[in-house]
Amino acid sequence: MLADINKDTVDFIPNFDEEEIEPTVLPAKFPNLLVNGAMGISSGYATYIPTHNFNEVINATIALIDNPNLTIDELLEIMPGPDFPTGGIVEGKQGIIDALSTGRGKVVVRCKANFVKEKGKEQIIIDEIPFDVNKAQLVKRMSDLFLEKKIDGMIEIRDESDREEKVRI
User: Fold this and answer.
1) 4 Cβ partners below 8 Å, 6+ apart?
2) Overall pTM > 0.85
3) I want to staple 78 with a disulfide (CB 3.0 to 4.6 A). Which of 48, 60, 69, 135 is the partner?
């Protein structure tokens, strides 16, 4: 991220109290912000950039260098959207299209669940949860809804996740 920082590769500006100077951007060789994501709040705005697949981001970057007039549809063929390390399912593409075309978009991610019939009973098995969702809090909230009888037909909620963080609720 800091390679060649002293070789006049990026602009520097004064920091917040003007006692030091700092780079306006880091001279990374790839778009780290997309690969690792970012979250932050500043005066007047907040941002949340979800993580993306490293290979897809690099391929999209190369495609944009080769063709700066790449359309959003062409870009989506190379980099279809965020790639969450804990899994989950992105609901629809419009939020991704909006984010790419306007800089603002809402990407809704839900748990991945399977319906299984075992011992004559139907089970809903959640095996992927959205990125940044705390599994323990999710299970607690589900249990609270169950105890408040806001969900009909449920017998119990169990967290059967293993030590390697394989999710199974």
Assistant:
1) 27
2) no
3) 60
DSSP 75-108: HHHH--SB--TT--EEE-SHHHHHHHHHS----E
How far apart are alpha carbons 168 and 159 in whole angstroms?
A: 6
Rounded to an integer, what distance in angstroms lies between the CA atom of residue 44 and that of residue 34? 22
For residue 79, what pLDDT is reported? 93
DSSP string, the chain: --TTTTTT-S-EEE-TTSSSEEESS---SS-HHHHH-EEEEETTEEEEE--B-HHHHHHHHHHHHH-TT--HHHHHHH--SB--TT--EEE-SHHHHHHHHHS----EEE-EEEEEEETTEEEEEEEE--TT--HHHHHHHHHHHHHTT-STT---------TT-----
pLDDT digits (tens, 9 = 90+) for 19-34: 999 998 888 777 787 7
* Contacting residues for 87 by C-beta, under 8 A, at least 6 apart: 112, 127, 128, 129, 167
